[in-house]
Amino acid sequence: MLMSIKVRYFASLKESIGRQEDILDFKELSTVNEIWRQANPGKPLPANTLAAVNMDYVELDSSVKDGDEVAFFPPVTGG
Questions:
Q1: Is the entire prediction scored with pTM above 0.85?
Q2: Could you tell me where the beta strands, DSSP code E, fall in the chain?
Q3: Residue 28 lies in a domain
Q4: Which domain covers residue 61, as residue numbers?
Q5: CA-based, 20 to 30 A from 28: which of 2, 4, 35, 72?
Q6: How many Å apart are CA 57 and CA 41, to the nearest integer?
Q7: Number of domains in the chain
């Protein structure tokens, strides 16, 4: 059975990748970091990138499951 994961990119990540979202299919459980690698082969995850699963911030080694939405954000800066 395939799992479907929606991947979204925000702010400068969206600009540098050239798209706003991807839909990926997986055969087994995956982590946030593996989702990035599948969606962006050969492109390293920028340093200090934040990730969220279903709108909750998570670590990059967090697991994802069928139907989850994974979002990547550039580091937030304040001023």
A1: yes
A2: 3-9, 21-26, 30-31, 50-53, 56-58, 63-64, 69-73
A3: yes
A4: 3-73
A5: 72
A6: 23
A7: 1
Q: Which of 61, 54, 66 is nearest to 27 (CA)?
A: 66
- The pair of three-digit structure tokens given for residue 35, joined into one six-digit string: 């989702």
Write out pLDDT tens, residues 14-57: 999 999 999 999 888 899 999 999 999 999 999 999 999 999 99
**What CATH number did the domain enclosing 41 receive?**
3.10.20.30
Cβ-contact 30, 64 below 8 angstroms: yes
Q: Are strands 3-9 and 69-73 parallel, antiparallel or unpaired?
A: parallel
**β-strand pairing of 3-9 with 21-26:** antiparallel
